[in-house]
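Q&A log
Question type: sequence-to-structure
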Amino acid sequence: MRRSAFEQCGFGGALRAACIFSMLLGRMAFAETADPANPATPATQNPPAAPGEKPLPQYKHPYKDGLYSTIVAMISIGAPEIEKQKTFKLEVPGFKKDIKVKAILQDKPAPLVVVLVGVDGKSDTPLGRLFPWWLQDAGFNVLTFDSTFRPAFMENARTGVTGNMNDECVQIAKIVEQFLKIEDVKKRVTKIGITGYSMGGTQALILSKMAAEKKLNFELSGAVAFSPLIKLKSSAELLDDMYARDRNKFTMIDMGKTFMTHEPVAPGAKIPFEPEFMRAGIGFIVREEFTDIVDRNDTAFRLKLLPEEEKLQPGENRRAYAEVDWGFTKFM
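Response status: OK
Response body:
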């Protein structure tokens, strides 16, 4: 029986699975700009191929409803365990302890693609395995690791509060550098490229700029960004608005039961959910993600933005304050 990405990642407290959020903004932006007269047409046409290059195949997305497209991504996108993917521990200068990364090495020399996941994404979720699955099947070496937005990365890298994109890209470059020093890796990597989606796409663009400015200690042959966040504040405001408008209209149990058992409808068929129900689910997921990020950053750096434990009233907790008072916009 097929298990959805929701079921593999869990729901409730585990509903915070980053495999959902990391596709969110790109899916919504794509679907909202598609041709209303034809739900299956792509939102944009690929640019003409350069002389001597093959044109990219046109991508057709089956849904024009951005909210529903996001829900479908939650329950259907992902890849199984990758047999060839191995875990490596890297000693990165400045890090508190070794960092775990996941890599796929081909049997013969090949390019290496560094895959950067979305906000709070993990490399071992169904979505986190998707790009590595495709790339290893196409013959590439692949390196990936958890998002720099995850509290565990912040606590290990010790470079300050989560969200300093430029500095976090410096840390990403250091991780790649250390991986390339492994003898077995040296023999198998012919050149290096970077790809990322959502926030990882933004980081891919920043690293590409760093390469152009000669700020990387390795040669970057190319970078591809999928649905990068360009206007971070606008994206944050959109997501916070979903939570504020509709989250309290539905229970977590109602949303879990509905979404976990849903099978995507055929292209062109009637969407089975009301917009407010879908906004509530998306808003809840995102707010849960940032609740943990705010709480952990406040504790690690003693920011005192949340009430101290000893000053809480019976029945109160810091996470509740973080959820109510701190959204994506305020955090950024």
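Response note: The longest strand covers residues 189-197.
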